[in-house]
Specification:
Rossmann fold, 5-stranded mixed β-sheet, about 20% strand
Length: about 120
C-alpha cells in the first residue's frame, strides 16, 4: 500500500524542493501540500510566540490531512514545530510520547495514531 504524506508549509517557496527530496528518498510516497503563508506573520505579530489561533489552525489542518487520507504529516517550517506537542489524536513522528521534549535535530511532524483511524 502506498504511503500518503501531507506537507504542511508556511510558505510556497520551499514546497518544490521538499517534494523533490521526498520523491528522491521515498519514491513510492504520494505527497500533497497544505500551505498557509500567514502563519509566520501571525507568530511575528505575537512577539515571536506561537499564538493560540495558530495552534487552532494547525489542528484544523491536521484534521483536514487525515480526512484527505494522509498517513503522516511533515511540518516544513520550524516556526510551527511547537504544534507537534499539542496535536491530538496524533503522535510525534519521532516515536516519543506526545507532550515530551523533542530530541535536538528531530524533524517536526505527526503520524496518525491507530486509534484515530
Amino acid at each position: 500500500m502506498q504511503t500518503k504524506l501531507a506537507l504542511l508549509s508556511t510558505g510556497i517557496g520551499n514546497v518544490e524542493s521538499i517534494m523533490a527530496l521526498v520523491k528522491e528518498l521515498r519514491p513510492d510516497t504520494e505527497v500533497f501540500n497544505i500551505v498557509d503563508d500567514s502563519i509566520v506573520r501571525s507568530i511575528a505579530a505575537n512577539g515571536n510566540v506561537v499564538p493560540p489561533s495558530v495552534f487552532r489552525r494547525m489542528a484544523g489542518y491536521m484534521a483536514f490531512a487525515e480526512e484527505a487520507g494522509a498517513d503522516a504529516v511533515l511540518l516544513t517550517c520550524s516556526s510551527i514545530s511547537e504544534s507537534v506537542d499539542r496535536a491530538q489524536p496524533f503522535r510525534p513522528a519521532d516515536g516519543r510520547p506526545a507532550g515530551t521534549s523533542k530530541p535536538r535535530g528531530a524533524a517536526p511532524g505527526w503520524r496518525f495514531s491507530p486509534a484515530a483511524r
